[in-house]
Amino acid sequence: MLKQIISPLIFLIFAWFVVSSDDAKTIISGIAIFLIGMHYMENGFKLFSGGTLESFLEKFTNTTPKAIGVGFLSTAVVQSSSLISVIIISFLSAELIGLTQAVGVIFGSNIGTTTTAWLVSSFGLKIKIAQYAMPMLIFGVIFQFSKHNSYKGLGSVLIGLGFIFLGIAYMKEGFDTLKEGINLAEYAMSGYPGVLVYLLLGAIATIIIQSSSATMAIIITALASGQIDYINALSLAIGANVGTTVTAILGSLASNRNGKRLAVAHFIFNIITGLVAVLLIYQLRDLVEFLAPYLSIAQNDYAMKLALFHTIFNVLGVLLVTPFIRPLVNYLQTLFCVKEKGRGQVKYLTEEVMQIPASALEALRKETIHLYDKSLEALVHAMNLHRSEIFSEREIPELVELSNETIHVDINKVYQEEIKNIYSEILRYSSQTQAYMDEEDNNKVYELKLTARNIVEMVKDIRELQKNLNYFIKIKNNYMINEYNKLRREIVTILRRIQQIRDADFDSAEIMTELEVLKEKAADNERKLNQGIDKLIRDNKIDPKMAASLINDVGFMHSICKKLLKVAAVLWVKDKEIAELGDEYEY
Amino acid sequence: MSIRSLLEQMDDFFDLSRKKQRKKREKLDKLIVSLEEKKAKLKRKIRRETHKDKNSKKAYNLCKEFKAISRMIKKAKKRADLISKVDCC
C-alpha cells in the first residue's frame, strides 16, 4: 500500500519541482534531450555499421592488448559502451570470441567511454554547439526517410549527435542561470568525508539516469559554470563510474550467462578502479596538474582537467586489473554454470542482438547450422549408421554394407524433443528480428527460414525411408536390402562431402561447383536406381508392392539429397552472387 | 512538387543499387572467366580420358563436372546480362 503511494508522490514532487523552477526545468530538459540523443545514437550505430563494427570487433581481438585497444576505439567512435557490450555478449554466445577477449574489450570500452568527457569539456563548452545541433537534426531527419538501413542509421546517428549537443547546451545554460540565484558551490565539502558524500551522489545520479555519460555531462557543465568544487567533481566522476556497474548488473539480469559474467567482470573492474581512485584522489589530482600543461590545458580549465582525471583513473584501472585477467576469467567461468538444458535448446539466438541486423543474421545462420547438426544425427541413426563412421576414411560401400544392424531410434520422438523446439525458435526469432531489417536482410532471413524448413522436412522424409529399410532388413530380402544400401550410399556420399566442405577452407566458387557436381550425379543416380527397379520387377526378383515401396523411397532419398545440397549452398556458400548460381528455391 | 515525390527522388539518390549492381556484374564476369578456364581444362581431360576408356569412372566424373560447370556458366551469363539490362534502364 505504502509503495503504491510513494512512487506517485515522488513523481508529483518531481513534477512540481520541474514546473516551478525555470533553472531546474532547463537543466533537466537538457539531461532528457541528452539521453534521447544517446538512445538515437546507439540505435543508429546498430543499423549504420551494417556488420562493419561486428567484423572489426571479431577480427582484431585475438590478444588481450588488441581486445583492449578495440574496446577503446569502438566505444570512442560509437560513444556507447552498452552497444559494445551487447555485441560482445552476442559474440561470446556465438563462440566467435573467448571470455578473455571479451573481458579485454569491456576493459578497453571503459577507457573509450571517457572520450565523452573530453568531447563535452572541449567542443561542448568551448563552441556554441547548439548551432551545429540544428543542421544535424535536419539532415538526420532527411536521412531517416531513406529505404536503406545504412542511411537510416546515419540519420539516427546525426539526430543523436544533434540532441546530445542540444542537451549539453541546455544543461550549460541552466547551470549558468542557476548561478545567478543559488550557488551550489557553497555546499562544497572538503577532505575524505566530502569525497565519500560526492562519490555516493555521483553513483546515485548514474543509477537514476542509467547513463554514466549523461552524469559526466552534468558534472562537467556544472563544474564549468562554477556550481561545484573541483575536488567534489572528481569524486562525482568516480561515483559515476561506480554507479554504472549497477546499471550493467541490472541490464544483465535478463541476459544469458555470458552477459552476466561480463557484468560481473565490469563490476569487479569498476569497483577496484573506484577504490584505487578514491584512495589516490589527491595524488591523481596532482598528476593531472602535472600533465595538464603538456596537453595545453589551461590552468583554470577544470572541465578539461576533469576529463583528464577520468581517463587517467580508468587507464590506471586497466593497468592494475589486466595482469589478473586470467584468474578473473577462471573465476568468471565458475559462475552461472547452470545445468545443461535439454537437448532441444537453442544455442545462439540471443535476444540482445535482435535489433542489430548483422549480428542477428549471424546468430540465425549459426542456429540453423545447429539445427542441421541435430537433424544430421537423426538422419544418420535412421539409416542405421553412426556419425563417426560417416565422417571416417572408410569406403562408403563397405561401410554401408557392414552397418546392417537396426538402430532403434524413434524419429518422431527425436523430432518432438530435439528438433521442433529449435525450429520453432528460429521461426520466432526470425519474425521478430525482421522488423528491424531492410529488404535485403529480410530476404536473407527468409532464405534461412526456408533452409530450416528444408532441414526439418529431411527428417520427416528419412522417417518414411527408415520404416521400409528396417522392415526389409527384418525379413532378410537380399534384393531389397541391396537396393536400400544404394539409397543409403547416395545420402552418405553427400553428407560426407558436405562435411569435408565445412571442414576445408574452400572459397565460395569452389563450394558451389562441388555442390553442382553432386547435384548432377544425384539426378543421374536417381535415374539409374529407377531403371534398376524396373529390371528387378521384370526379372520377378521383387513383387509390385516391394517395388512401390522402393520407388517411393527413391523419391524420398532424392528429396533428401536435393535438400541437403540446397541447405549447404545457403549455409556455407558465403558469397551471395555465387550461391544464386545454384538451384532457385522452389517453394 | 509534393513531399512524397521529393522523398522518392531522394531515395533514388540515396539508392546505391547501381553501384552494387556494377560490383555484382564485375564479380560475375570474373567468375565466368575462371569457370570458362576450368571448362576448357576439363574438356582436354575428358578427351584424354575417353580416349583411354570411354566408360571409366573417372571419365564419368569428369563429364558430370563438365556439365555442372557449363550450367553454372550459363546461369552466370544470364544473370550478368540481366544486371546489364537493369543498369541500362
| Helix proportion of chain A | over 70%
Radius of gyration of chain A: 31 Å
Q: Give a short account of the largest sheet of chain B.
A: none
Helix count of chain B, per DSSP?
A: 3
Name the helicity range of chain B.
Answer: over 70%
Query: Total helix count of chain A?
Result: 25
Q: State the shape of chain A.
A: elongated
Q: What share of residues are in beta strands of chain A?
A: under 5%
What's the order of the H and E elements of chain B?
Answer: HHH
- What is the terminal-to-terminal distance of chain B? 24 Å
H/E order of the elements of chain A? HHHHHHHHHHHHHHHHHHHHHHHHH
Largest sheet of chain A: none
Count of discrete domains of chain A: 2
Q: Which stretches of chain B are poorly predicted, pLDDT < 50 over at least 5 residues? A: none
Biggest interface, CB < 8 A: A-B, 21 and 24 residues
- For the secondary structure, the number of strands of chain B is 0
Beta-strand proportion of chain B: under 5%
What's the short story on this structure?
With 587 residues, chain A is mainly alpha-helical. Chain A has helices at 2-20, 22-48, 52-59, 64-78, 81-93, 99-112, 115-126, 130-144, 149-181, 191-209, 212-224, 230-252, 257-279, 281-291, 302-321, 325-333, 357-382, 387-390, 396-402, 411-433, 439-474, 478-503, 508-538, 544-572, 576-579.
